[in-house]
Amino acid sequence: MQIDLNCDLGEGVGNDEAIMPFITSANIACGFHAGDEFIMRETIRLAKRFNVNVGAHPSWEDRENFGRKEMNLLAEEAEKIVFYQIELLAKIAKEENVLMTHVKPHGALYNQSARDKDLAKAIARAIRRGEVSSPKLFTKPLILVGLAGSKLVEAGNNLGLQVAQEGFPDRGYRSDGTLMERNQNGAIIESPDKVANHAIELIKNGILFGDKVVHVDTLCLHGDHPHAAENAKLLRNVLEKNGVQIIELK
Predict the structure, then answer these.
(1) How many domains in the chain?
(2) What is the CATH number of the domain that holds 75?
(3) What global pTM score does this model have?
(4) Average pLDDT, the chain
């Protein structure tokens, strides 16, 4: 068994350096929900030091709510703001001699695109637009990371993008394979041991999304989780002890 371990970083939480040694992919906030150009650059340098993949983590423009407030923009507007954030991070990465490898939407943008076909298509188009319009920034195809089994993954596949199906060991799921709302009981799994056990379950059994089982390519740990660094270290150890090979997205 193989899996990528990713984490949402560059969000000003202060534990990025403690998490980075245990992951293979970093999703870096692009300033719309958290972070700024200085933090982006520092996080990219940190990822480079630990040989971790760098990806863009675009969001709705919503710093007040950490990008977790749903918004209803026209698909064309959503495409523009996602493209802006992807291109911004790619430019900074290039200045640091780092190749950006993937894109994973954040918060409400991520959850809405999991179920909204038009928004999912807009995000996929923004990624393709970057590859086509800025070939010097994107010298290899970007990977779209989305909720396993979701409309976002489907949109990426339909546009011919490389996609990675994502699971969340520190989050609770509904019976239909979607994530529970954060204010629901059991939505946030806080115990590092339970997070590790859930990760093993996700890797072995996949996620029942509707009437199909979807296997995951990458597991996400939230950098703003109260036990984020502890979760990352324990999870890496538990996975390796269970014969899971930790590999980066390719």
Answers:
(1) 1
(2) 3.20.20.370
(3) 0.94
(4) 92
Phi, psi of 9 (to 5 degrees): -130, 180
For residue 40, give both structure tokens.
């982006």
Distance of CA 90 to the CA centre of its chain: 16
The total number of residues written for the chain in this structure: 250
C-alpha–C-alpha distance, residues 111 and 188, integer Å? 15
Residue 216 · residue 229 · CB < 8 Å: no
**In the block, residue with structure tokens 């068994």:** 1
Which region among 3-17, 152-166, 227-241 has the lowest average model confidence (pLDDT)? 227-241
Largest CA distance in the chain: 47
Position 48: which residue type?
A: K
Question: What is the domain extent for residue 151?
Answer: 2-246
Contacts of 120 (CB under 8 A, 6+ apart): 113, 114, 146, 150, 151, 152, 154, 155, 156
The pLDDT score that the predictor gives to residue 169 is 92
Amino acid at 18: A
Question: In this predicted model, what pLDDT tens digit does every residue of 102-156 receive, in sequence order?
Answer: 999 999 999 999 999 999 999 999 999 877 777 778 878 999 999 999 999 999 9
Residue 219 sits at φ, ψ, to 5 deg, of: -115, 135
Query: What is the three-class DSSP state of 243?
Result: coil
The residue behind tokens 């959503």 is 78
